[in-house]
Write a structure and sequence with these properties.
- The radius of gyration is 19 Å and the shape is globular.
- The chain is 42% helix and 16% strand.
- Helix 1 links the parallel strand 1 and strand 2.
- Strands 3-2-1-4-5-6-11 form a seven-stranded parallel beta sheet, sandwiched between helices. It has a two-stranded parallel ribbon with strand order 7-10. A two-stranded parallel sheet has the order 8-13.
- It has one domain: 3-Layer(aba) Sandwich (Rossmann fold), CATH 3.40.50.
- By secondary structure, the chain is of the alpha/beta class.
- The protein starts with a strand and ends with a helix.
- Helix 1 (11-22) packs parallel to helix 2, helix 1 (11-22) crosses helix 8 (222-233) and helix 7 packs across helix 9.
Length: 331
């Protein structure tokens, strides 16, 4: 199978590429390599993909530019698409909203248009647990109403789901949307809490703990996320008129992809402290605009349909991340 992966130099995208290549697929990766965070980290991820596996090709393309996208992929062939590229970050969406308009709205439209015009067998795309907004009914279920996003980032991800539903209805394009829950692990993003906490603890700096420390997250290890993405990719939704996860009767389904555990933020910090063999100085701060207090994934739908079962607890996953961080930074 030949797979197009967007966001190939990103955290999740690079891991998905390596998994697909390891099992014998051919992968074309695209990424615009923007400077939202350290570009050298993105190049290092690409180097790991190339080092470990054959069958990989890469093009630097901004998929939010439909002219550049069409020209760059004109001579390329692929059977399925894993669309993971996006402008990430809840807090950054408050500072730079137009970046989300380009990448998450125009970019998503461009990719589903690519899927339609190429008659792709299946398009798997990244949504987010952020779409649940201030929902206080736990765990979050794909059947829940998600009409009240708390950030522009969340709003763009919900809009992506609606656009995909339209294309599944009009053009019968098989699609699967995945609402990711707080993904962490080796090669993660520098703007995420686990990276920020680890860096601060190892350098002897205090850590900023928002929500006065009273927050819970469904922390999901990268290997479990990849297993879910690939399971979905391999099993397109049927165009059979039956109701799919998320409520569609078109070939479009939506799954939560999480660890199905809601962990106390303070407990996660304690595990980082143990892995670093140092105690953090915790600076308790109020909730930030756009943030939510609790997340918790109901994974019943993907478990029932595809047998997905997360395997990694934070007690196992956090030390792996800390060890990778220390090796990567030589600290």
């Amino acid at each position: 199978m030949r797979v197009l992966v967007t966001g190939a130099a990103g955290f999740i995208g690079s891991h998905v590429c390596r998994h697909l290549l390891a099992r014998g697929d051919t992968v074309l990766g695209i990424d615009n390599l923007n400077d939202y965070y350290d570009v050298m980290l993105k190049h290092a991820r690409l180097a790991e993909i190339i080092k470990d596996n054959g069958g990989f090709s890469f093009k630097q393309i901004d998929f939010s530019d439909h002219v550049a996208l069409d020209a760059g992929l004109d001579a390329e062939e692929f059977d399925r698409i894993v669309h993971l590229g996006a402008q990430a970050g809840v807090r950054y969406s408050i500072k730079n909203p137009r970046a989300y308009l380009r990448a998450n709205l125009a970019g998503h439209l461009n990719m589903i248009e690519m899927g339609r015009s190429r008659r792709i067998e299946h398009l798997v795309y990244a949504s987010s647990s952020s779409v649940y907004g201030g929902n206080d009914t736990l765990p979050f279920r794909v059947e829940d109403r998600v009409d009240h996003p708390l950030s522009l980032y969340a709003a763009t991800k919900k809009a992506d789901e609606l656009m995909s539903e339209t294309y599944a209805h009009l053009y019968r394009l098989p699609q699967t949307g995945l609402r990711f829950f707080t993904v962490y692990g080796p090669w993660g993003r520098p703007d995420m809490a686990m990276w920020l906490f680890t860096r601060a603890i190892l350098s002897g700096q205090p850590i900023d703990v928002f929500g006065e420390g009273c927050m819970r997250r469904d922390f999901t290890y990268i290997d479990d996320i990849v297993a879910g993405v690939v399971a979905c990719l391999d099993t397109p939704p049927a165009d059979d008129g039956l109701v799919k996860a998320g409520g569609s009767i078109s070939p479009h389904r939506i799954y939560n992809l999480g660890n199905s555990r809601s962990e106390d933020l303070g407990e996660m910090i304690s595990v980082i402290e143990q892995a670093c063999d140092r105690v953090a100085t915790r600076r308790l701060l109020p909730m930030q605009p756009g943030d939510v207090r609790d997340t918790f994934a109901d994974i019943g739908a993907i478990r029932k349909d595809l047998g997905f079962e997360p395997l990694t607890t934070i007690a196992e996953g956090v030390p792996r991340f800390v060890q990778w961080y220390r090796n990567y930074h030589n600290v």
